[in-house]
């Protein structure tokens, strides 16, 4: 049983789940862009990114209490993703400015989402775990691609601290789903090796693990 905090006044809300969904989606879009220079074009998102963006905009229909700020933040993220891809296509390798802009914009979008989540400590715990997990995963995907020449992302984040912190948190606040720990053991090993040879597998396991963490909120 998940070792979360059982206090009815801190119940998880539908908005919390929608905000976590958007956070996960934003990381997935960034990983699409890091891995594939054709993730976006001058006409907008490509075949893989388009369904993701459509789903994110549909989620906004349930989150209309932010005076358009969330939609504006999502539009800014979409523009940064497009700018990065188009720059990569035109210059044959992405330049530092557009890579850093994408990283900064996605992180700002994520921070805005987290600032709008409820005061439930359970939401905070799982959102923090998902955030660290997908930060590590997106770094791995970035380092495995040609985009890694654009700027030194590993100087921006202390991956050893992120891994240790997430490992401790998962031990302190486990989930019922027995599939989570095998995924984490694989990912932890990949992150520590830093060989960057399995980006698709890392992305797949990380996104699956993020959903397990999110669904564990149903047990709170």
Give a concise summary.
With 220 residues, this protein is mostly helical. The chain is 65% helix and 2% strand. The model has no long low-confidence stretch (mean pLDDT 92).
Descriptive account of the structure:
The chain has 220 residues and is an all-alpha fold. Helices cover 65% and strands 2% of the residues. A two-stranded antiparallel sheet has the order 1-2. Helix 1 (14-35) runs antiparallel to helix 8 (199-215), helix 3 (69-91) runs antiparallel to helix 4 (96-115) and helix 6 runs antiparallel to helix 7. The longest helix has 23 residues, at 69-91. The model has no long low-confidence stretch (mean pLDDT 92).
Q: Would you tell me the overall average pLDDT? A: 92
SSE string: HEEHHHHHHH
Radius of gyration of CA atoms, rounded to a whole number = 17 Å
Structural class by helix and strand composition? mainly alpha
Number of helices: 8
What kind of sheet is the major sheet?
2 strands, antiparallel
Helix content: 55-70%
3D shape = globular
List unreliable stretches of 5+ residues.
none
Strand fraction band?
Answer: under 5%
Q: What strand line-up does the widest sheet have?
A: 1-2
Terminal CA distance: 9 Å
**In total, how many beta strands?**
2
């Amino acid at each position: 049983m998940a070792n979360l905090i059982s206090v009815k006044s801190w119940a998880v809300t539908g908005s919390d789940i929608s905000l976590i969904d958007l956070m996960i989606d934003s990381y997935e879009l960034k990983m699409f862009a890091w891995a594939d220079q054709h993730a976006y074009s001058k006409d907008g998102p490509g075949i893989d990114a388009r369904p993701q963006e459509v789903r994110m905009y549909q989620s906004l229909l349930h989150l209309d209490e932010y005076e358009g700020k969330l939609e504006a933040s999502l539009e800014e993220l979409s523009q940064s993703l497009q700018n990065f891809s188009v720059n990569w296509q035109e210059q044959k390798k992405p330049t530092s400015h557009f890579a850093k802009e994408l990283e900064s914009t996605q992180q700002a979008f994520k921070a805005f989402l987290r600032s709008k989540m409820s005061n439930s400590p359970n939401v905070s715990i799982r959102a923090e775990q998902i955030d660290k997990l997908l930060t590590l995963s997106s770094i791995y995907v970035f380092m495995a691609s040609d985009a890694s020449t654009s700027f030194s992302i590993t100087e921006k984040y202390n991956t050893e601290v992120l891994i240790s912190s997430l490992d401790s948190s998962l031990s302190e606040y486990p989930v019922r789903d027995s599939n989570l720990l095998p995924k984490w053991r694989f990912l932890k090993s990949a992150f520590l090796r830093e060989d960057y040879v399995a980006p698709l597998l890392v992305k797949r396991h990380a996104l699956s693990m993020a959903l397990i963490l999110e669904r564990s909120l149903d047990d709170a």
